[in-house]
Structures are given as structure tokens and as C-alpha cells.
């Protein structure tokens, strides 16, 4: 599972580092080339609920194999795309299995694990995503700059193929529940706690993306760091993600709700410190490494959604990744808006703190509504 999410995480973020090269190769502007990234994110948002609903009755192992096969084929087709239009379409198709794979993989790992280690089992799915930020994205970005963006997608396809082979070899057959059906999965959308949890991710996670999107801009224009510091900061961010995923998964085993509250409170604090420390290199690098730990919110939200939908988990689990991509888009937009308004690049820290704090408020209201309704989520 981790090998597969390593490939998916690398494929999602690596284009950012070679965007100018891609634009020149295809004869388009850099902003137009950036729409290729948006196409992938749109595929994630659309594909997660669609595939989860259609595949509700499929054997979980078979569904994972189909999703990875689509990912591999999409990256191969991206590498062979003759022009901008074809690449745009292929990135949309490649994004379709993204959210569904993460959601189904988390369910499979949770079902295979001892209940007291469920959080760590779910967190293990995201190990590949965090390591991708430390190793996969920098290496494929360097390879793309040297060998071209087509070679980059070819390598990512090979990574995905390795993940597919390992799933086929190691993941046992796991039938869907006897009562599973598309209508039953869609029924979870009537539950308020599902929407409270998804809204928490869509808003609260935006704080991390708001800061992360403009981290390089802050380092170069506010901190006045030399160019080589930027890759160092990216690596520190990635290492923070690895540590946050491990620590957060252990906290999830104690209480998913507590893990969400602690992570969002930490994200709010770190975003404020980012704005305050932006002018000093060592303090801001320390904050950046801690900010990466906000990724702990991902397994916490994933597990929370499993708890509030014990009888129809696939759609809710996959929608978590649609929410994260909404957070990505909204966080990046808000950060750009405050910079464009003239508040300075470091102001993305204050905007990120506002989003993380708002996510914490939404989740707290959800817990209050659950308490007032007299319903307890199963332990």
C-alpha cells in the first residue's frame, strides 16, 4: 500500500517543479500549463465519490488493482501525449482513481489490523505519501528537468506498476459486505457527522496548503534565503510530514477526535508562528518542519469517517480525499488573494491560521451536535 501511495503522491506533486519546462515544451504559458495540475485535482474530486459508489459491491482487492491499473495507464498515456489538450485530458483521467484508492486502501488496512492498532494501520497507507515529499518528488523533479517531463511520467508509471504487482501478491481477497450497494453508500450523505467531518477537512486542511503553496515565495522575498535553502526547506517539510504521520497515527489509536483537535490547534499555532518568524531563517525553517506534521490530520479524519459510517464506509472514506483537494485549491487561492491585496507574502501565515482555526470551530460544533443528539460514535 505504501509503495502505491508513494507513486500516487509523487505523481500528484512532481509537475510543480518542472512546470516552466512543460510550458516551453508544449508552447503554452506557465499559467496555462498550471491548469494541467488543476485537471488532476478535478479528477480526484470527481472520481472519489463516483468510483466509490459504482464499486460498492466489488471485492476490495480487485477494486484496488483496477484503480492502480488506471493510474499506471494514465501516466503512460501522459508520457505519450502529443500535445497540451491530450495531456490535460490524461491528467484528469489519472486523477480519477486517486481518492478512491486512498479510501479503499485505508479500509482494507484497518480491517486487517488489530483494533487497538487501527490508527497506525491507516497511517501506514499514508507513509508513501509523506516519503514521496522527501524522496520521490525531488528525484522525479530532477529527472524531469534533465530528461524531460515525458520521462518523469514514465518513471511514475513504473512506480505504480510495482505497487500493482505488490498488491496482487500480498493483499488478500476481501469481499464487500453482504448489504453493500450504491444506494447504501449514498445513504451516508444524510448523516450530519459525515458533513461536519468533511467540512473540517475541506476548511481546516486549507491552512497547511495556504502556507505550503507560497513557502518558496516567502523564503526568497521575506526571509531573503539563498536559492539552495528552498530544497532544504522542502525536505524539512517532508520530514515533518513523515514524523507527523507516525505520531498522529498513534494518537488516532487513543482518540480520532482528540487527534483532530490537537492537530488543528497545532496548525493554527504554527501558521501564526510562520507569519511572525518569516524574516528569520533558522526560526522559519523550524516552523516549516513542524508545519509538515499537520499531515497527521489525514489519518485522523479518515478514521473518524469510518467511525461515523460503520455500515457504509467506502464513499465516506473516499470523500475525505475530495475534501483535501478542495482544501488544497481554496488554501492556495486564499493565500494568493491576501498577497495580491498587498499584505505581504508572510500574510499567508495569518490566512492559514484563520483556515485552521475555522476548521477547529467546525469540528467542535460537530462534536457538540453529536453530544446534544445523544449519539456516541463507536469506539
Number of strands: 0
CATH topology-level name of the largest domain? Growth Hormone, Chain: A
Provide the CATH superfamily of the largest domain: MFS general substrate transporter like domains
> What structural category arises from helix and sheet content?
mainly alpha
Radius of gyration: 20 Å
Helix % is over 70%
Largest sheet: none
- Poorly predicted parts: none
Main location: membrane
Pfam families: MFS_1
Membrane topology: Multi-pass membrane protein
Protein name: MFS transporter
Helix/strand layout:
Layout lengths: L1 H12 L5 H8 L3 H25 L5 H20 L4 H29 L5 H8 L1 H21 L1 H22 L11 H5 L5 H13 L1 H8 L1 H7 L7 H26 L1 H22 L3 H11 L5 H12 L4 H28 L7 H25 L7
Helix pairs in contact: 1-7, 1-8, 2-3, 3-5, 3-17, 4-5, 4-8, 5-6, 5-17, 6-13, 6-16, 7-8, 7-13, 10-16, 10-17, 10-18, 11-17, 11-18, 13-14, 13-15, 13-16, 14-15, 14-16, 14-18, 16-17, 17-18
